[in-house]
Every structure is written in structure tokens, then in C-alpha cells.
Design brief:
A hairpin with a 2-residue loop joins strand 3 (about 55-60) and strand 4 (about 60-70). This protein has two domains: about 25-275, Beta-galactosidase, Chain A, domain 5; about 290-575, Aldolase class I (TIM Barrel). The longest helix is centred in the first third of the chain and has 22 residues, at about 5-25. Strands 6, 7, 8, 9, 12, 13, 15, 16, 20 and 21 form a ten-stranded antiparallel beta sheet that branches. Strands 29-28-25-24-23-22-30 form a seven-stranded parallel beta sheet. A four-stranded antiparallel beta sheet has the order 1-2-3-4, with no helix packed on it. The chain has about 600 residues and is of the alpha+beta class. It is built from 13 helices and 30 strands.
């Protein structure tokens, strides 16, 4: 045998060995790294000696997510957790610029490298991991193809972890609590965190800023970050009332798990990563979605000048609404929000979800007359639907309620889901009540149903007590704003009220997910007298600044008309400030 034949036989033996190994296990690549277009962000997938599938993230050469686990677990089927390897992969570069119908900036660049990793185990189970790496972070999601035995699945756990570097500082609010997302942000070391909502923002010891969140949350449960081991945060999916996390069928895909990265805090503010991971506009022509400013019958109830319920101090009367319409018309405002016009507010409305009637007005309010009066002056009535957590009661009436608003010319509705966390009332087909979380799969679907039903009638939705924003405004531009943090009302009665630093932290945390209807613009800082206990914890200058620092395409001038007329020079800023921008750029800032 000559030297060539020897080498040839050696090659054939190695090839045969490789093929035999491939027959035993589909693992062909022990590790795969995907880099951002500029090369600064790297996402690596590998497996360890236990057969666990792991990923790691590096930014500018520094490890920002240490090796962390991937995988899914199911109630009845085999888990996607160990023994999986990369069978094959495909990669591409994507670079496009798309236009928003409204937003912080009109044009958005989507520039990333995508890798689709096809994973399999020795038993033939398969799933895909799709990864998109941008210059300012990354997103990855699980995509489960149709396969035998997985036609219908109940997901009981997601194994995705985020192992953060030691010595890091975090800004966070507690997850799975009674007050949903309405907590003051805490600044602590990682070891102080048990469960945290996302976005959670972290600064490493090297000064790198990291935000962990999710994008495109559709027909799935939201997650909280659950520190189950030191510095290891697992995606704890919010369960149904029976403990199941997600009910679905193959094929299905999870939301994106996202990591935004910047060498400084201000860089996080200029990121479009969450939006870019969402699907394009699904509604077609949305020229009917109008950014703008509004006033409303709202703050008067929070400071106890008026009541939501009927009686001598009822706020939502025809007469009072026309007064607000006149004020809005004089100063160029687009709409007037009216809360408390429909039957159901009397008594303890917080627990009155069964009693709300969304098409029946109190006797002192004429919906048609008020809407017509405003339209004659170029001002639209902004509708309101408060559920007090009884979502089934609202769902039964939703179509008729939206039809009514459409018929009188309403083009925007504020919805409310006031209820403690875990206390959303769902009534099943047998009439039995069950109590769900605001961020479980049931409510994720209910919120989106409300948005899509409204879109059929060319109505925009501003959700309060919402599911967190995950960028779906790109796909459904009529989801024009939402709350999702402690808002202005806590300055009226909160115990404690919003701290001075609260609104300085929001841009680097909650606002990274999307617009917030904070309802700024309070001018009378002592609405209940000079007693310091009831003083609004703010300044006039700060209230004006919030119109720029807390973005929303709809902004409320929340105070009473007479308080604005008493301060015309300051009020002129609110009149003049835009809510829809050609370009926005954060120049400097620290959390």
C-alpha cells in the first residue's frame, strides 16, 4: 500500500467512524457562535458533560451572560432538556429600514445576523433555536416543529437561564406580587433578588449595562426572573390557576428572550431591538391611529373632588364633560377621557367587576350628545372600559361595547384591569370561577383579543393594569400605549407616593419595553391642602419634563382645567410639545 492509499484508507476509516457516531447521535457541532454584524456581541451554544444545552453571551470581549441552560419541560411528553445537539444550521445577514406609523423615531434600522440551529437528540426529538444578534444585543426563541406525540402539549417549565456576572448591580421590581408591576424600583446587588419582573436592568462590575426582557409575547405566558441559584435567574413562566404554564400544540414558537447591551446606560435608551424582534404591521392602513394629547375626568376623582360612582359629586356628567370639551377645543387638544360614565361604579367598584355594564350610561350622562358636542369642536370623546378584574364579564360585552363606541365616533379607548395579582376572574363553560394572573397565558390572549377586536372598528387601545409591553405595537399599531408601572395616581394617594427618583429610573427599566401612559402634567401640587402628607411629590418643572423623558404617542394633561388656566406660561409647554417624533436620541444619562 502506497502513502496515498494509506492516507485514503485513514480518511475512509475516519469518515465511517463519523457516520457511525452520527447514527448514534445527531450531534455534529459541539459549539456554535453567532456574532453581531459589528462583531462586538457574541452568542455561543454548547453542551456540557451532563448533556445540558448551554448558551453564553459576550460583549466587547467581556462575558455578560455566563454559561446558562436552555430547554423546555412538558407535563406528558419527553422533555427538551438533555442530549440535544446541533444537527445543522443556517445563517444570514439581515439589513433593512422600516417606517413606524408613530413613535420615538419614524425610521428604524433592523440590522442583525440570524442563525437557525436545528437541534435533535438520539431519539429523534427535534426543536429549533432561532438566534438574532444585533450590535446592541440579541434575541433567541424556541421553535417546536410538528412531531409525533406532541400534537397538544402542556408546558410545565422553561429551563432558560441568565447567569449574570458577580459584582453586578440591578434595578428591579418584585415579580408575582399583588400589585402587578406597580412597585418602586429597587437598586440592589443580585443576591437581594428573589423574583423580578422584566425588563430588569443590570450594570456589571466592568460598567456594561444589560437589560433582560422578552419580545413578541403572543399566546404564551410571560416570565419573571427567578433566582434559583446564586446569580442564576430562570425564566419562571406565569402559571394558569391549575399550575400549567402554557397550553399549546405543535408547531409553536416561544416569545423571544432578549438581552440588550450597552457600554453605558444611555445606550439602552437608543435601542430598537425589542421592536425589531416583532412582526411587521398586521393591520394594513392604520392612518386612523392618531397620536396626540388629551385631558380628562380622572384626576378629580383621585384627589376626591369628584366620584366615579353616581351621586352629587359624580364626575362623568354631560355638563362636566362638555366643560372639558370646551377647554380641550380652546387649547388644541385632541380628546377628552371620561371615566365613570357607565353603570357599575357605585359602591366598592374595585370588587364590582360582575356589575359593570359597558353600554348602559348613568342618567346624568348622554354618550351620543357628548360625543357630538366634541366632534363639532374638533375634539373626540375617549372611551373607558374598567373591568375590575372580571374579564369574563367584559368579554361577553366587548363586541357590543366597542360597537357602541364606534357608532358615536370614539376612536380611542382606555381599558382597566384593576385587581390584585392572581385575582383576574375567569368563568369557565360550566359557570365556575377561576382566578388568573395578569401576565399568564389566559390574559396575554385576552389583552390581544381586545386590541384586535378594537382594530376591526378602527379604535386604538390604551391598556391600564396591562400585560408588560413586548413590542407588539409594531404588529398592532392601534395598541397605542399602556401603563405597567406606578403612574401619576400614586402621587395623589399612594402609600408611599412615587419617590423623586422613580421617574428617573423608569427610562432605563420599564420604558425600555415601550410607551407608558404615565399621565403627567400636575400643576396644583397641594390639591388637598398644605398638609405635607397629601402633597404631590414632584415639582412643576419635573411634570413638564416628563412629557419628553417618558415617551408615549398619547399624552394626558392630567390636572384640572382651572389649574392650567392659572399657570398659562407653563401650560403653553404642554400645548406645544409634540407626541410623535421624526427622530429621538438620548445624549447622556445614568440610572
Amino acid at each position: 500500500m502506497n502513502q496515498y492509499d494509506s492516507r485514503h484508507m485513514s480518511f475512509l476509516c475516519k469518515a465511517a467512524l463519523s457516520l457511525s457516531l452520527l447514527a448514534i447521535s445527531p450531534l455534529v457541532a459541539a459549539e456554535r457562535t453567532v456574532a453581531s454584524p459589528d462583531g462586538r456581541v457574541e452568542f455561543s451554544v454548547s453542551s456540557d458533560e451532563r448533556g445540558w444545552l448551554l448558551y453564553e453571551v459576550r460583549f466587547r470581549g467581556e462575558t455578560v451572560i455566563e454559561p446558562s441552560r436552555l430547554g423546555l419541560r412538558f407535563l406528558e411528553q419527553r422533555d427538551f432538556d438533555t442530549g440535544f445537539g446541533i444537527e445543522r444550521s443556517a445563517e444570514r445577514i439581515h439589513d433593512e429600514t422600516w417606517e413606524q406609523p408613530w413613535g420615538e423615531r419614524r425610521l428604524v434600522r433592523d440590522h442583525h445576523r440570524e442563525a437557525l440551529l436545528h437541534l435533535a437528540d438520539a431519539n429523534g426529538l427535534r426543536f429549533d433555536l432561532r438566534v438574532r444578534v444585533f450590535d446592541d444585543g440579541l434575541g433567541f426563541r424556541y421553535e417546536i416543529p410538528a412531531q409525533d406525540g406532541y400534537e397538544a402539549v402542556s408546558n410545565v417549565d422553561e429551563l432558560t437561564e441568565f447567569k449574570l456576572p458577580g459584582g453586578s448591580t440591578a434595578w428591579w421590581i418584585p415579580g408575582r406580587g399583588y400589585n402587578r408591576y406597580e412597585y418602586l424600583y429597587r437598586k440592589t446587588d443580585l443576591d437581594a433578588i428573589e423574583m423580578a419582573h422584566t425588563p430588569m436592568t443590570v450594570r456589571t462590575a466592568e460598567g456594561i449595562h444589560v437589560s433582560i426582557h422578552e419580545a413578541a409575547l403572543v399566546d404564551y405566558a410571560a416570565f419573571v426572573l427567578d433566582q434559583r441559584r446564586e446569580r442564576v435567574f430562570q425564566t419562571n413562566l406565569t402559571p394558569w390557576s391549575d399550575g400549567i404554564r402554557v397550553r399549546t400544540a405543535t408547531p409553536f414558537k416561544t416569545p423571544w428572550r432578549t438581552v440588550q447591551l450597552s457600554p453605558d446606560a444611555v445606550g439602552l435608551l437608543n435601542s430598537d431591538l425589542i421592536l425589531n424582534l416583532n412582526e411587521p404591521n398586521a393591520l394594513g392602513d392604520v392612518s386612523w391611529v392618531k397620536p396626540g394629547k388629551y385631558v380628562g375626568i380622572w384626576w378629580a376623582m383621585h384627589i376626591r373632588h369628584r366620584t366615579w360612582g353616581s351621586g352629587p359629586d359624580h364626575g362623568a356628567t354631560t355638563k362636566e364633560t362638555k366643560r372639558y370639551m370646551d377647554f380641550a377645543a380652546r387649547h388644541g387638544f385632541d380628546g377628552v377621557l371620561v371615566e365613570g360614565w357607565n353603570v357599575g361604579w357605585d359602591g366598592d367598584w374595585f370588587h364590582n367587576g360582575d356589575l359593570f355594564r359597558f353600554t348602559q350610561a348613568y342618567p346624568d350622562f348622554d354618550l351620543q350628545a357628548v360625543s357630538d358636542y366634541g366632534l363639532e369642536k374638533g375634539v373626540r370623546l375617549i372611551g373607558h372600559h374598567e373591568t375590575s378584574g372580571n374579564v369574563s364579564n367584559y368579554a361577553e360585552q366587548m363586541a357590543a361595547a366597542l360597537d357602541l363606541y364606534e357608532s358615536v365616533g370614539v376612536r380611542q379607548v382606555k381599558t382597566g384591569y384593576v385587581a390584585d395579582g392572581g385575582n383576574i376572574k375567569r368563568v369557565d363553560g360550566k359557570g365556575l370561577p377561576h382566578y388568573e394572573w395578569h401576565d399568564g397565558q389566559f390574559m396575554v390572549n385576552e389583552y390581544l383579543k381586545n386590541v384586535t377586536e378594537a382594530a376591526k372598528r378602527k379604535i386604538s387601545i390604551n391598556t391600564h393594569e396591562p400585560i408588560k409591553d413586548t413590542g407588539l405595537r409594531r404588529t398592532y399599531p392601534n395598541w397605542i400605549s399602556r401603563e405597567g408601572a406606578k403612574g401619576q395616581e400614586f402621587n395623589a394617594w399612594g402609600v408611599p407616593p412615587n419617590s423623586p427618583e422613580h421617574t428617573a429610573i423608569l427610562p432605563y427599566t420599564r420604558m425600555l419595553s415601550g410607551p407608558m401612559d404615565f399621565t403627567p402634567g400636575i400643576f396644583n401640587l397641594m390639591p388637598r391642602g398644605e398638609d405635607s402628607i397629601h402633597r404631590v411629590q414632584t415639582t412643576l418643572a419635573k411634570q413638564l419634563a416628563l412629557y419628553v423623558t417618558l415617551y408615549s404617542p398619547i399624552q394626558m394633561a392630567a390636572d384640572l382645567p382651572e389649574n392650567y388656566e392659572a399657570r398659562p406660561e407653563a401650560f403653553q409647554f404642554i400645548v406645544d410639545v409634540p407626541t410623535d417624533w421624526e427622530q429621538s436620541l438620548a445624549l447622556a444619562g445614568e440610572v
